[in-house]
Amino acid sequence: MPNRLFRDGYLDSERIAALSPGAELCYVRMLLSADDAGRLDGRPHVLKSRLWPVDPMKSVEKVREWVSECHRQGLLKAWLWDSKPILQLLRWQKPSPAKRSRFPDPDGVYTITWHEADTRDGKKQFVSTSLPDAIAMPSVSLWEGLGMAFEEKMPTRSETETETETERISIRAGAQESPGVLPGMQGDAVGPGFKKWDRDRFVAAVKAENTDGLLSLPEETEFIEHWTQVDSKGKMKFQLEKTWGTRARMRTSLNMIFKPRREKGTGRTPESVLEKKERNYANDDRQDW
User: Fold this and answer.
1) Who's near 64: CB < 8 A, 6+ residues apart?
2) Which of 40, 20, 22, 21 is nearest to 30 (CA)?
3) By the 8 A CB rule, do 133 and 93 touch?
4) What is the DSSP string of 73-128?
5) What's the pLDDT tens digit per position in 90-142?
6) pLDDT band at residue 6 under the 50/70/90 scheme
7) Which of 5, 67, 71, 254 lies deepest, with the highest CB count within 10 Å?
């Protein structure tokens, strides 16, 4: 992902000034997380884990509220594709020579199209779908505009936030204890509820965190197979961990295992520091990475 440039126009924007502090922070994080077309996966639970990967205190409900506030101020719009919401940040200038987006436009096309428009700094190129249809404030909320077809498929709190408030506090205290997770990369750590996940729930969590292609498909499959190995007591490998952060574990695997393997081009990498830690921690006879 390329670096994002903030121009001084951000400081005197009336739309930005009208945002609450939480909504402005959410908007800034969306600017940093969006792809080259200014688009993001709009599912609130995915946004929460993407925008605040190491802060379990941020709730899905607050993210929904802040995104709606940004929509009311004319900073983004959205559409449904395959029953999933796609967010488009408005007035998105061309940041790189990229030709394709990670998310389709309303017609299902991934190719990015550009439109030249006059600005106070001269002519600039903008993503075509990022140009506002009208300057007037939206008359309905973002989620109402997307329709009940999406609303009915929104995951409930029990599906996305299994931890209690007490568990959330304990996560912050014990996050550094998780072996194999690098400092500052605890990711979407959750409370003991993850130990009750079945394999399907685990696979869904991995796929939700890999929408940006962090791991290739073979790497994602290998990651899933590794962490869902079952021991003699019927417990899967991830269920034996003290804490769990799906995105953080994926990044750790990428940096410690998959990137070195990609650079070598063939074969498996020698046992890494992560592998040694995992083997010593598990203290069993299972084959580790």
Assistant:
1) 44, 143
2) 40
3) no
4) TTSEEEEEETTEEEEEESS-B--SS--B-SS--TTS--B--EEEEEETTEEEEEEG
5) 999 887 778 899 999 988 899 999 888 877 778 888 999 988 763 334 444 56
6) confident
7) 67
Model confidence, pTM? 0.49
Q: Are residues 29 and 113 in the same domain?
A: yes
Count of structural domains within the chain: 2
In a domain, residue 3? The reply is no
For the stretch 53-57, contacts whose Cβ atoms lie closer than 8 Å and that sit 24 or more positions apart, written own/partner, are 53/186, 53/187, 53/188, 53/245, 53/247, 53/248, 54/175, 54/184, 54/185, 54/186, 54/187, 54/189, 54/245, 54/248, 56/163, 56/168, 56/171, 56/172, 56/188, 56/189, 56/190, 57/168, 57/172
d(CA 113, CA 127): 6
SS3 content of the chain, % helix, strand, coil (to 5): 45, 10, 45
Residue 171 scores a pLDDT above 50: no
* Side chain identity at residue 120, one-letter code: R
